Write the structure tokens for this entry.
Amino acid sequence: MGDHGARGGDTLKRVAFGVAAIGAVAAGRRLFSGSRQGAEAEHISQSEAAYRAARARILILGGGFGGLATALELDRRLRAEDDVSVLVVDRDNDLLFTPLLWTVADGCANPSDVVVPIRAFQRGRSFHLLHGEVRGIDLDAREVETSAGMRPYDVLVIALGSVTAVPDLPGLRERALVFHTPADAVELRNHLIDAIEAAHRTEDPAEHAAWLTFVVGGGGDTGIELAATIHEYVTTGLLAAYPWLASAPVRIVVVGRAERLVPMSSPRTSEAVRRTLEGEGVEVLTGASIEGVTRDAVQTSRGEVRARTLFWAAGITAPDVVRGLAVEHARNGAIVVDDHLRVPGRPEVYVVGDDAWAFDADTREPVPPTAQAAEHEGKYVGRAIATGLQGRTAPPFRFRTRGRLALLGNRTGVAEIGPFTIGGFPAWLLWHGYYLFRIPSWRNRLHLLADWLLAALTGRETGQLRLGPGPRTPGD
Ligand SMILES: Cc1cc2nc3c(=O)[nH]c(=O)nc-3n(C[C@H](O)[C@H](O)[C@H](O)COP(=O)(O)OP(=O)(O)OC[C@H]3O[C@@H](n4cnc5c(N)ncnc54)[C@H](O)[C@@H]3O)c2cc1C
């Protein structure tokens, strides 16, 4: 495996830049200036001009959990190095704090409570930001095509996250709803209200039951939290506005392909999750797969469920710009990396977060696609790059989990911390306290606290908020 050690004498080692990265700086620049001539309008801010002039240009694609953690660690370690420059590219100007998206979906908080502007992290720090779309990555030429023109690099960090993977099964791509963004969280609320209003309108009992049946595809972390959120919002949040719901036959069915829910957790945690969900009336179908969906029903390997709604939360995939790279990919499109989170054969290219197919160097356990892991990887890569620039090699990546937390509705949750599993209200409290502490902004914390308090005192948000072109209701 290559590293970022300097070539040549000791003096050079102190100041220069990773082995492979450094060796190719001149060649990369020649290639870059060639392709620049062909690029269309480029807009380069003053701060970016400094990036271009630097001797070591570190380009980070994505300012989410992994990308930001890398940038912050690089700032901490390399701030004093005038000839090193870091540029973060993201098409959005915010960090979406996904663990708290549920509290938007269940009507207790606003979408803006769970996003933190990236510029807030930049204040007083040395890295630059480019607000733009990454359109292509040329690993040979060492440059990246963005909506603001080409950007060269000496060291690249790919941290573009993931999207929900919806397989090509009959009806699925047209009808399934996904949950990945604040817009999806608002649309979940809108859709549940649409479904309940539709059930209220119909005289046909079968139609009524189908509108009040909600199927969730996926028995992992997102699937169980989705089922719990739907249950909580329908049975608790909407009850005040729709009192007849108290006696209505609302059905929520979660379908998981594995033999147990949350298969990445311990069997004890899986069992606790199943018990809690079933206790609330959520139906759990494990060892079953969804085979298709029509306007009126969801087909599973264990039979048909008459339902007008299918939410899909069974897996993620890397974005196209990552999937399209000519490197080794895992089945979900993530890039296979070595023990130092580098692309094999390309020591100047690191991958972090959901885009990395990584294993713990000691245990060989896969690193899960979570915010926690992305932050850990980002911090490691920041350190590895800084260490490489000083002519040393960082030890291989080791992942130590802090545990897992999930909300299960009705003021219950589950927490897995080391060998312990905590359930019920203590886990619910821990979830709220922990993520309130983790969201990296006092402004967001205060907004969240105020919104949670208001929801407890005056009830949840039950108005529809249309931000897009209009309602999207599968089955209509
Ligand atoms: C609903 C939900 C709940 C979750 N809950 C938890 C949880 O409780 N705990 C946990 O640990 N994990 C949770 N996760 C997983 C977690 O969000 C991801 O694992 C984490 O975000 C991955 O970090 P990342 O840096 O790889 O990607 P991200 O944080 O998604 O960052 C990727 C960045 O790249 C940008 N980007 C993407 N494509 C482009 C492009 N072409 N051009 C420019 N910019 C681009 C995006 O705007 C984004 O800012 C949850 C995920 C979801 C969807």
Observations:
- The first strand starts at residue 56 and ends at 61.
- Confidence is low (pLDDT under 50) at residues 1-40.
- The pocket of flavin-adenine dinucleotide is lined by residues 62-67, 89-92, 98-99, 101, 133-134, 159-161, 179-180, 222, 319, 321, 353-355, 369-372, 374 (CB under 6 Å).
